[in-house]
Amino acid sequence: MKAQTKLLAAAIAAALPWFASAAVTADEAKALGTTLTAVGAEKAASKDGTIPAYAGGLTTAPAGFKAGDGIRPNPFATEKPRLVVDAKNMAQHAGNLTEGAKALLQKYPSFRLDVYPTQRSVAYPKFVADNTARNAVRAKTLNDGRSIEGAHAGFPFPIPKTGNEAMWNHLLRFNGVAYQAKYRNLSVDTAGRTTLSVEGQSTQEFPFWDAAKADTDTFWRMKLQYTGPARRAGEALMLIDPLDIGSKDRRAWSYLPGQRRVRVAPDLSHDTPNPGTAGTTTFDDTFIFNGSMDRFDFKLVGKKEILVPYNAYAAVYQAKQDELLKPNHLNPDLVRWELHRVWVVEAKLKEGKRHVYSRRTFYLDEDSWSALASDGYDARGQLYRTGFAYMAPSYDLPAPYTDMFGHYDLVTGTYSLTGFIAETGGLRHVQALPDREWTPDALAGAGIR
Question: Which pTM does this prediction carry?
Answer without folding.
Answer: 0.94
